[in-house]
Amino acid sequence: MPPILLAVDKRYARGLVWLRRDLRAHDHAALYHALRSCQEVLCVFVFDRAILDALPGQDLQPRPDGLRSDRRVEFILASVQALRERLRGMGGELLVRHAVAQEEIPKLARALQVQAVFANRDDEPQALERDAQVLGALANAGISFHTFKDHCIFERDEVMTQSRTPYTVFTPYKRAWLAKVDDFYLKSYPVHHHAQALMRMPEVAAGGGELAGLATAHEALPTLQALGFAPTNLPSLQIPAGTEGAAAMFERFFERIDRYDKTRDYPAVRGPSYLGVHLRFGTVSIRELAAPAHQLALQGNSGAATWVSELIWRDFYLQLLSHHPQVGQGKSFKAVYDRIHWHQGKHADALFAAWCEGRTGYPLVDAAMRQLLTTGYMHNRLRMVAASFLCKDLGLDWRRGEAWFAQHLNDFELASNNGGWQWASSSGCDAQPWFRIFNPVTQSERFDAEGKFIRRYVPEVAALPDKLIHAPWRASPLELEAAGIRLGEHYPQPLVDHAQAREASLARYGVVRGTEAPEPFAAKPKGQKSPRRRVRG
Ligand SMILES: Cc1cc2nc3c(=O)[nH]c(=O)nc-3n(C[C@H](O)[C@H](O)[C@H](O)COP(=O)(O)OP(=O)(O)OC[C@H]3O[C@@H](n4cnc5c(N)ncnc54)[C@H](O)[C@@H]3O)c2cc1C
Fold first, then answer.
1. Sign of dihedral through CA atoms 9, 10, 12, 16?
2. Which domain of life is it from (predicted)?
C-alpha cells in the first residue's frame, strides 16, 4: 500500500514532482501525494541524456544528417507538450530539461528550494540505480525523496505465495491477483481535488549562480532535432499521443472489448487495444483501464476477462523483474539455458539481418517484422511467432531478438519484452516448453487464413492464392509465374526448412537438458510431466 500522507499535514512548503514514465496530470500517485503534503508543487520532466544518447535509432542505415529516428522520442515530446498545457491549465507548470537526470534533479531541487521530491517507482534495474543516486544526492542536501507505486496494480511483494515467495507460475499468480484486487487498488487518485497547490515558476528561479537559466528554461520545449532525433512517420500512424490520445483509443477499444477474446489472435483484425505505448509512457493510468474492464469481467464479459488477464501478465512480469533483476541483464531465468550453443559468426549475422528486415522467406514472419519496422507495433501473436522463429528455427540467441524489439517497439517495456522472449525461447519462468516449436506455416494458415495481413506487409506475394500465400515455395512454377513471382528474385527462398530446423532445435535444447530430443514430438520426455497445451498471448 502506498504511504498515505495526511491532507491536513502540509509538511513541506514546496515540493517537486519528477515525471518519468507517467506523462499525465490525472490519477497520478506521486502528484497526488505531493499536492497533499506540500503548500506549493512544481513539476519537471527531464529528457534524460543518459537514456537518449544511448539510443541507437531505428534507421536501417545511418542518416546523412547525423540524427536518429525513434518514434518513442517523438511520442514523448508530443505527450510532454500536451501535459505541460494541461498543467498550465490547472495553474501549474512543467519544467522541461534536457540533461542527465541523476545530476539535474538534485541540482534543480536545490535551486528551487524544495524540501521534497516525489516520483513514481520504476523497477527496471537501471532506473533503480539512477534513483538510488538521486536519493543520495538529495539526502546530502537535506531534501527528501518519496516514491510511489503507480504504473501497475500490484508491485514487488504485494502478491506473494502463501510461503511469502514470489510467484513464478502465471495461473496461480493470476488467481491470487484476482482474489486481492478490490476498489481500493483500482480507484483513481483524485489529483484535481488538490490542484490549488500547483504553482507556476517561482521568483527564486530568476536568481544567478545555480539558479541561472531556470527562468527562461521553462519557456520553450526542446525540439526533436535539439534532442538529436529526426521526425518519423508517427503522425501518419493511428497512435495519437498524450492523455487525450490514450482516452480516445481506450474509448474505441472499450466498444469492442467484449470481442477481444475471439479477435485478439488474428493480426488482420482490429482486436487488441494498441494501448501498450500509452501504458509504457503513462499517458493512461493502469487503474483507469483496469477498473472498468474488471467491472465488466465480473459481470461475465469474457472479452473483458481475457483483457484483464493480459494486464495481469504485465504485472506478473513487472514483479518478476523486480525479484529477479538478472533476467533484465541478459541472464536466462532458468540458468541451464545459458549453456545453449547458438549459431554465431557471419552466417548467423546474415540470418539475423534477414529476420530483422523481413526477408526470411516465411511470409507471416516477414509481415510481422515489417510491421515492426514500419509502425513500431507488432501484434502479440506475431511477437510469439517471430520470436520462436528466431531462436528455434534460425538457432539464434534470443537476446539478439530481444535487443531488436527493444530498439523498435513503441511499447518496449523491459519486463514484458524480456518475459516474452524468455517465454518463446523456453528459458523463462512458466515458458513455452523447450520442445514445443511454433510451425510458422501452420500459424499463418490458422491466424491469417486469407492472407490479409500478409498482403498488407508483403506485397511481393500478394497475387498468390490464399492457400499458397503461407508457403510460396510450395507453389508450382506455373502458379508462381501466374502470381508474377520468381523465388529468390522477387521474394526470398525460405532461409531454413522448418522440419530440419525443428530437429536441430530439439537437439540444441536436448543437449542443454541432458536429455534426448523427445520422439515423437508430443511424447513426454523421461521424468517430465506431460506438457500443458497452453496457448497464451
Ligand atoms: C517476444 C515478445 C515481446 C514482447 N514485448 C513487449 C514489450 O516490450 N512491451 C509490452 O508491453 N508487451 C510486450 N509483449 C507482450 C504483448 O505482445 C504486448 O503487450 C501487446 O502485443 C501490446 O499490444 P496491445 O497494447 O494492443 O495489447 P492488448 O492485447 O490490448 O493488451 C493490453 C495490454 O496488456 C499488456 N499485455 C498484453 N499481453 C501481454 C503479455 N503477454 N505480457 C505482458 N503484458 C501484456 C500490455 O500492457 C498491453 O498493452 C511481448 C510479447 C512477446 C511474445
1. positive
2. Bacteria
CA neighbor of 48 nearest in space, from 94, 98, 122, 83:
98
* The pairing of beta strand 68-69 with beta strand 38-48: unpaired
Q: Tell me how far apart the alpha carbons of residues 340 and 510 are, in angstroms, rounded to a whole number.
A: 9
**Cα–Cα nearest to 339, from 504, 502, 168, 514:** 514
Cell output for 57: 535509432
Residues of the chain with CATH 1.25.40.80: 151-186+241-323
Ligand 1 pocket, 417 CB below 6 A?
Answer: yes
Instruction: Give the cell for residue 197.
Output: 497547490
- At the topology level, CATH places domain 151-186+241-323 in 1.25.40
Q: What is the pLDDT of residues 242-284, one digit of tens each?
A: 999 999 999 999 999 999 999 999 999 999 999 999 999 999 9
Sequence length of the chain is 537
What is the edge-to-edge ordering of all strands in the sheet holding 116-120?
94-99, 38-48, 12-19, 116-120, 144-148
Every domain range in the chain assigned CATH 3.40.50.620: 1-150
Q: Which residue has the cell 498543467?
A: 87
The amino acid at residue 113 is: Q
* pTM as predicted: 0.94
Asked if 18 is an active-site residue, the reply is no
User: Rounded to the nearest whole angstrom, what is the distance from the C-alpha of residue 159 to the centroid of ligand 1?
Assistant: 21
Q: Which ligand 1 atom minimizes the distance to the CA of 406? A: 8
Closest C-alpha residue for ligand 1 atom 37: 310
69 DSSP β-pair partners = 230
Average pLDDT over residues 456-484: 98
For residue 62, whether the previous peptide bond is cis, meaning omega lies within 30 degrees of 0, is no
CATH topology of domain 335-512: DNA Cyclobutane Dipyrimidine Photolyase, subunit A; domain 3 (1.10.579)
φ, ψ of residue 179 to 5 degrees: the values are -70, -30
Name the pLDDT band for 453 (thresholds 50, 70, 90). very high
- Residue 246's nearest CA partner among 122, 83, 70, 91 is 83
Which part of the chain has CATH 1.10.579.10? 335-512
Residue 26 to residue 240: CA distance in whole angstroms: 18
- Reduced to 3 states, what is the DSSP secondary structure of residue 503? helix
Q: Compute the distance between CA of residue 21 and CA of residue 119 in angstroms, rounded to an integer.
A: 10
Distance from C-alpha of 205 to C-alpha of 113, rounded to nearest angstrom: 9
Q: Among candidates 73, 100, 43, which has minimal Cα distance to 218?
A: 43
Decide if domain 1-150 falls under CATH 2.60.120.560.
Answer: no
Lowest-confidence pick of 14-23, 61-70, 206-215, 461-470 = 206-215
Q: Is the CB of 317 under 6 A from ligand 1?
A: yes
pLDDT of 529 above 80: no
